[in-house]
Amino acid sequence: MLDSFGREITYMRLSVTELCNLRCRYCMPEDGACRKTRGEFLSEDEIITVVEAAASLGVRKLRITGGEPLVREDIVPLCRRAARVKGIDEVCLTTNGALLPALAKPLREAGVRRVNISLDTLDAQKFRCMSRGGDLSQTIAGIRAALEADFEKVKLNTVLIGGFNDDEIPQLAELTRQYPLDLRFIELMPMPDSGDFGPGAFLPCSVVTERLPELVPVPPDGGVAKLFRLPGALGNIGLISPLSAHFCRECSRIRVTADGKLKPCLHSGDEYSLKGLDFDGMVEELRHAILCKPSWHGVLNPDNRSRAGRSMNRIGG
Ligand code: SAM
Ligand code: SF4
Fold first, then answer.
1. Is the Cβ atom of 201 under 6 angstroms away from ligand 1?
2. The model scores a pTM over 0.70
3. What DSSP line would sit under 129-198, residue for residue?
4. The domain 11-314: what is its CATH number?
5. Which ligand is located closest to the Cα atom of residue 255?
6. pLDDT per residue as tens digits for the range 2-52
7. Cα(84) to centroid of ligand 2, in Å?
């Protein structure tokens, strides 16, 4: 369906848990423990009803996210059910990759077509520090498993942080020459709970094209990333610039949190509750929320933090 600004809403990001096996400093506070009871989250049946209701209004692409979606024991059957919903053309998943070695194949067989894996650094010590204890080798093993599981597309997501990983831009980009995957650099968003990385931490994506002058532009693929390619590479380099060049005018997304709140805009505190509603109730609330989707996210920079009202692990990115 169209929102009040004529944008067609075709893409839903659906968070299936707030829990995570990492604690990334830009995403969640150190004491990120979830204090909610199970009953406060959408049940598996409610999640599928949300997908059915969204599909009935024209959502075609579904991205399962979290928290870390793979910590859910029922993630494979959940993805299988979602992939079977009439009207949903594509189920994709965003993960930190640590549990992919065991799950990549079953997820692919369940109908997940594409997978995005977060990878901010190739240095094991830096990885451990940024994720507060994570093991880089597990994420690397997850990336390998995803490549072997024959997903239609594997993308790596790298949050660009000045003084942390900008020195690794060439090495990270080189992965697109070695493996058939895309790598996207994402500008660090100043979320309510994201850590304070100091004055030089925010870097516009233009630093990537400055550091890699050999990048050649390639046509867009319908997503929000500006695409480039290194000569001879097997995959693209994408630049996602929510701060330096926001893409609100082309936004086709809605988000649903694990506790059943529909967020028409990532950076707005406006939320519409779907928990406890039946199919018809969800369709009505989705329709109402889509019509209330704001035209843009407002000024967003390190001095004007997001008004999302939640940390990223409680939204889904
Ligand atoms: N746990 C999964 C993962 O890490 O891919 C999925 C959930 S995570 C919240 C989704 C995406 O949000 C990740 O790619 C992560 O890097 C990104 N993200 C989290 N906080 C961010 C921030 N402050 N700025 C930019 N991206 C952020
Ligand atoms: Fe967990 Fe993903 Fe957030 Fe890192 S970015 S803490 S892996 S939800």
1. no
2. yes
3. HHTTS--HHHHHHHHHHHHHTT-SEEEEEEEE-TTTTGGGHHHHHHHHHHSS-EEEEEEPP--TT-----
4. 3.20.20.70
5. 1
6. 999 999 999 999 999 999 999 999 999 988 777 788 889 999 999 999 999
7. 27
